[in-house]
Structure formats: structure tokens, C-alpha cells
Write a structure and sequence with these properties.
By secondary structure, the protein is mainly alpha-helical. The protein has one domain: Cyclin A, domain 1, CATH 1.10.472.10. It contains seven helices and no strands. Helix 2 packs across helix 5 and helix 3 crosses helix 4. The longest helix has 18 residues. The N and C termini lie far apart (about 30 Å). One of its GO terms (molecular function) is TBP-class protein binding. It holds the Pfam family TFIIB. This is Cyclin.
């Protein structure tokens, strides 16, 4: 659970997350999980926020069973696939979840 202050402070980023989630047609559960993952690990640098946003979308879609490819999420969030690939497992681990071992 995140504070209202966090949601207000990062509102522009959450709007971007929602826009990308719309493009991906993610479920409500996947969107909610992505928001939680993003707010749990928002980087200080604006430059890194978009990559964490994308990784949160990807990881949230996996957790919710609404998985999308890294490439599709990268396109929707306007980042490189490598940005997602290098961050999504750490996001899940930070949230106390175990990433899949494919």
C-alpha cells in the first residue's frame, strides 16, 4: 500500500503508466500490480523512471497472468527492451516475489 502523497508526487508517471497499459490492453489486476511495483521502487533520477515504469508494467503483467512480451511493453512505454530485461527481476525480488526461472 502506498500513500496518497506518493500517488500525487508521481501522478504524471502514473498517467504514463496507465497510457502504456491501455496500449497493451492490460487487465485491471496487471495495472494495479504495475503501479504497486513502480511506487515501491521509484528511482530518484527522472532518466531512470521510464525504464522502471516499463519494467513494472512487464512484471505486473506476469504476476497477474496477463503477460506481454518485453518487446511489446518496450514499444508501449517508449524504452528499449534491454531497459526492461535488466530491471524486471530485481523489481519482483524487491517486492518479495520470486521471479520465474525459465
Amino acid at each position: 500500500m502506498h500513500s496518497a502523497r506518493d500517488r500525487i508526487e508521481y501522478e504524471p508517471w502514473l498517467e504514463e503508466l496507465e497510457t502504456a497499459a491501455e496500449r497493451l490492453e492490460l487487465s485491471t489486476e496487471a495495472r494495479s500490480c504495475a503501479v504497486d511495483l513502480f511506487l515501491a521502487d521509484v528511482p530518484a533520477s527522472d532518466r531512470s523512471k521510464r525504464a522502471v515504469l516499463a519494467a513494472s508494467l512487464y512484471a505486473g503483467s506476469l504476476v497477474a497472468g496477463d503477460g506481454r512480451t518485453q518487446g511489446a511493453v518496450a514499444d508501449a512505454a517508449d524504452v528499449s527492451r534491454l531497459s526492461i530485461q535488466s530491471r524486471w527481476k530485481d523489481l519482483l525480488e524487491s517486492a518479495g516475489l520470486e521471479p520465474p526461472r525459465w
